[in-house]
Amino acid sequence: MKIAVVGGTGLIGSAIVAHLFARGHVVVSMSRSGHSGPGAHRVDISKATSPSYWVPHLDGVEAVVNCAGVLQDSPGESTSMVHHHGIANLFAACEQLQIRRVIHFSAIGVDRETPSDFSRSKLAGDKALMERDLDWVILRPSVVIGRAAYGASALMRGLAALPAIPVMPNTGQLQIVLLEDVVRAVEHFLDPAAPARQVVELVGPQRYSFGEVVALIRRWCRWPPAREIHLPQFTSSLMYKLGDLVSYLGWRPPVRSTAEREIGRGAVGNLEDMQRLGLHPKSLPEFFAAEQASVQERWFAGMYLVKPAIFVVLSLFWISTGFISLGPGWGYGMGLMGEGGVEGTAAALTVIAGALADLVIGIAIAYRPTSRYGLYAAIVISFTYAIIGTILVPRLWADPLGPMLKIWPIIVLHFAALAVLEDR
């Protein structure tokens, strides 16, 4: 069977793509990056303003699985387009091309409460699909956990690595569902003989508090128990607002104002839906017992919260260096240039050019779409500073507080940032 998976590079989508490939299906993985192996298509749902946008991508397709989703509106991401209007045009294209089987991922609880644009747009997308003459299936998963991690599941791993477990106020119960059980549900409904026009909640067999899930992950990573610290409301609100600000720079932190509104209602549902289909989901402890944490999981958890700190430090380092060179450090820079034999206008222009380059690099590192280029530029200019400094003022190597010795740990930090840049 030829199957299109929209959102094929996400946590759920990539697992589905891999599973279907392994089962011998022809898979068309659609994502904004377009990088997910053979058969990958680059699509931007925000541009899917009519069914005709999807038609070229659906040639010969017999079934569609839609896993696309975003947490909240940010530059280049629209919940209305990704969850409703753009996807409604996908459903219309399927109807036009007579692609009967459509499996659509929604979110648990949207039929009961819609406190944010995320859940409201998800529900609107569900209704758009229900109106179509298709053999549709709507899957509403709880929080999904597997070997891979992204979003909320990645955040939980990062918190598990801390010496104490911070718990946000007003968090609801979680009925964690395993990624492997989600994939099995999709495989079940891709069978042409499977029932259609179904809404199925995908949940695990047990309910946990947020802190209990983090504690289970901590035990899985073989770290000693840690006590919970319940954060006050003002602290958590500040963190959510900070997450919103960071999202405007193109990053996707899981802690944003939408999460604050959604987390209160929790993620619980009806286990009978899965049992009725003959799907008996594993519990979280069963999964952890069968899938022992490797050094990769432990490294990821330990680095998760270190990563943003690295990028903040590097961005501020370059921006502050640029401002200092144009301000308090002007005389020092001009003095070094003079000591190396470069004086007057040439020295001033060199110092100004270096300061402006530092500012541009700092801003580029802070902005997610240009972060990789900023890091490469920082490494190049750091080596350039070292070479020029050695030629003009070689005595700087003998200064224990001088720039020549400081530059090497900064270069190493840039390589570390490049290593952990990708989220998935």
Commentary on this structure:
Keywords: Membrane, Transmembrane, Transmembrane helix. It holds the Pfam family NAD_binding_10. With 424 residues, the chain is α/β, with parallel strands linked by helices. The protein folds into two domains: 292 residues, NAD(P)-binding Rossmann-like Domain (Rossmann fold, 3-Layer(aba) Sandwich), CATH 3.40.50.720; 113 residues, no CATH class. Helices cover 50% and strands 11% of the residues. The strands form three sheets. Strands 3-2-1-4-5-6-10 form a seven-stranded parallel beta sheet, sandwiched between helices. A two-stranded parallel sheet has the order 7-9. Strands 8-11 form a two-stranded parallel ribbon. The two termini are 27 Å apart.
SSE topology sketch:
Blueprint: E1 2-6, H1 11-22, E2 26-31, E3 40-42, E4 63-66, H2 79-97, E5 101-105, H3 117-130, E6 135-141, E7 144-145, H4 152-160, E8 165-167, E9 177-178, H5 179-190, E10 198-202, H6 210-220, E11 228-230, H7 233-247, H8 257-263, H9 272-276, H10 284-290, H11 295-304, H12 306-326, H13 330-339, H14 344-366, H15 371-392, H16 403-419
Parallel strand pairs: 1-2, 1-4, 2-3, 4-5, 5-6, 6-10, 7-9, 8-11
Helix pairs in contact: 1-5, 2-3, 4-6, 4-11, 6-10, 7-8, 12-14, 12-16, 13-14, 14-15, 15-16
CATH class of the largest domain: Alpha Beta
Named CATH topology of the largest domain: Rossmann fold
Largest sheet data: 7 strands, parallel
Q: Going across the biggest sheet, name each strand in turn.
A: 3-2-1-4-5-6-10
Rg calculated over all Cα atoms: 25 Å
Strand share of the residues? 5-15%
Q: Mean of the pLDDT scores?
A: 92
Give the overall silhouette. elongated
Number of domains: 2
The CATH architecture category of the largest domain equals 3-Layer(aba) Sandwich
How many DSSP E strands? Answer: 11
